[in-house]
Specification:
Elements: E1 8-12, H1 17-28, E2 32-37, H2 40-52, E3 56-61, H3 67-81, E4 86-89, H4 104-132, E5 135-140, H5 144-147, H6 153-173, E6 178-185, H7 191-196, H8 200-208, H9 219-229, E7 240-243
Parallel strand pairs: 1-2, 1-4, 2-3, 4-5, 5-6, 6-7
Bound molecules: nicotinamide-adenine-dinucleotide.
Nicotinamide-adenine-dinucleotide binds at residues 12-13, 15-19, 37-39, 42, 63-65, 90-93, 113, 117, 140, 142, 185, 187-188, 190-193.
Length: 251
């Protein structure tokens, strides 16, 4: 993919399933990758895998819902590797539950991890991208943010908000050579999906109902992430793109 060699990318939640797959692909494409995750061991494992295949990577244990902690981690990354060119806001979390059965403490956690974290990181990174006249922000939204599945009301609200946030930010930052886009995975076969849909039979039924007859896997996401991070997508901004095997074709 043109324009990725030598770029610095940060992937939040880079120790998780989709974040690790994206980190590995960006590392393969010649990016130096900063793996930010609250799970330090998982982040270190991702960085180790990138280095083992000849790439450059570092790992930081950081709670990206905490603005000060996110800024400190970013400054440490900049001191060690240089400015961040590509930010992938990928950290996310949810649990299944009908809205009336959930509590404000749950909403707060869902909002912090799925939405506030992306605001924190984008706010910390964008000024330097503006100064440098180039940048890529990729928000990991979800088809939940477009379709609104039952049992995920607050998560869907956050992912919808993330899409809208990206559209506004894209217009603000377009004059500075910075693009902002959202990836909307459909159900993707990761540990998070097992938490969301604990019953294996229900997951299989979901797979069968997909036009392609299967769930997504993290590797389905990485090509689009690399494209949106690259020079190839320079005129693509403010978009939300589904990667769902054709499950979601509207909006
Ligand atoms: N799996 C799916 O079906 C699916 C579908 C649509 C969208 N998504 C989105 O894709 C992204 C990745 O999901 P996944 O399936 O790989 O999940 P995952 O649980 O494997 O990975 C999420 C990662 O985020 C990290 N994280 C959580 N809170 C954090 C915090 N406060 N600070 C830093 N890191 C934190 C976790 O430690 C984990 O490594 C999420 O944003 C999720 O909402 C997933």
């Amino acid at each position: 993919m043109r324009g990725l060699t030598g770029k610095n990318a940060i992937v939040t939640g880079g120790g998780g399933a989709i974040g690790r797959a994206i980190s590995l692909r960006l590392g393969d494409e010649g990016c130096g990758v900063g793996v930010f995750d609250i799970d330090g061991e998982a982040a270190a494992e991702t960085a180790h895998r990138i280095e083992a295949s000849g790439g450059e990577a570092s790992a930081q244990t950081v709670d990206v819902t905490d603005y000060a902690a996110a800024k400190t981690a970013l400054e440490r990354f900049r001191d060690d590797a240089g400015a961040c060119d590509v930010l992938v806001n990928n950290a996310g979390w949810d649990r299944y539950g009908e809205f009336v059965d959930t509590e404000p403490a749950h909403w707060d956690r869902v909002i912090a991890i799925n939405l506030t974290s992306a605001l924190n990181m984008s706010h910390a990174v964008a000024p330097v991208m503006k100064e440098r006249g180039w940048g890529r922000v990729i928000n990991m939204a979800s088809d939940a943010g477009r379709a609104g599945p039952p049992g995920h009301a607050v998560y869907s609200a956050c992912k919808g908000a993330l899409i809208a946030f990206g559209k506004s930010l894209a217009k603000e930052l377009a004059p500075n050579g910075i693009t902002v886009n959202a990836i909307c995975p459909g159900p993707n076969d990761t540990p998070l999906l097992e938490e969301l849909i604990p019953d294996a039979g229900d997951r299989e039924a979901l797979a069968q109902s997909n036009p392609m007859g299967r769930l997504g896997v993290p590797e389905d996401i990485v090509g689009l992430a690399a494209f949106l991070a690259s020079e190839e997508s320079a005129y693509v901004t403010g978009q939300a793109i589904s990667v769902s095997g054709g499950r979601t074709t509207h909006g």
